């Protein structure tokens, strides 16, 4: 997705990331809006005896929900930025990790010899 956005002109490049709290808000919003639209659509369709009215109400609510949920609005879905931890050590040195595992093995062998 980032590659597709990078091909857009600079004025159309938008951030597509939302945080975990934003995902929760988006999920709850679409659930509430579509549920209410379904209830309202059912009663309007029952009252007018037109199934098409009920379907139109639910479809309009789905379009409205899409406009609200799909863009990553910064005032709704990007309030709590994710703070990533920094790496503890260098990622490139594999000899350090193999040395530490070898040292751990030696310590385990010594401990088992002492207990016997």
Automatic annotation (TrEMBL):
<keyword id="KW-0472">Membrane</keyword>
<dbReference type="GO" id="GO:0006465">
    <property type="term" value="P:signal peptide processing"/>
</dbReference>
<dbReference type="GO" id="GO:0045047">
    <property type="term" value="P:protein targeting to ER"/>
</dbReference>
<dbReference type="InterPro" id="IPR009542">
    <property type="entry name" value="Spc1/SPCS1"/>
</dbReference>
<comment type="similarity">
    <text>Belongs to the SPCS1 family.</text>
</comment>
<dbReference type="Pfam" id="PF06645">
    <property type="entry name" value="SPC12"/>
</dbReference>
<keyword id="KW-0256">Endoplasmic reticulum</keyword>
<keyword id="KW-0812">Transmembrane</keyword>
<keyword id="KW-1133">Transmembrane helix</keyword>
<protein>
    <recommendedName>
        <fullName>Signal peptidase complex subunit 1</fullName>
    </recommendedName>
</protein>
<feature type="transmembrane region" description="Helical">
    <location>
        <begin position="53"/>
        <end position="76"/>
    </location>
</feature>
<feature type="region of interest" description="Disordered">
    <location>
        <begin position="88"/>
        <end position="116"/>
    </location>
</feature>
<dbReference type="GO" id="GO:0005787">
    <property type="term" value="C:signal peptidase complex"/>
</dbReference>
<feature type="transmembrane region" description="Helical">
    <location>
        <begin position="29"/>
        <end position="47"/>
    </location>
</feature>
<comment type="function">
    <text>Component of the signal peptidase complex (SPC) which catalyzes the cleavage of N-terminal signal sequences from nascent proteins as they are translocated into the lumen of the endoplasmic reticulum. Dispensable for SPC enzymatic activity.</text>
</comment>
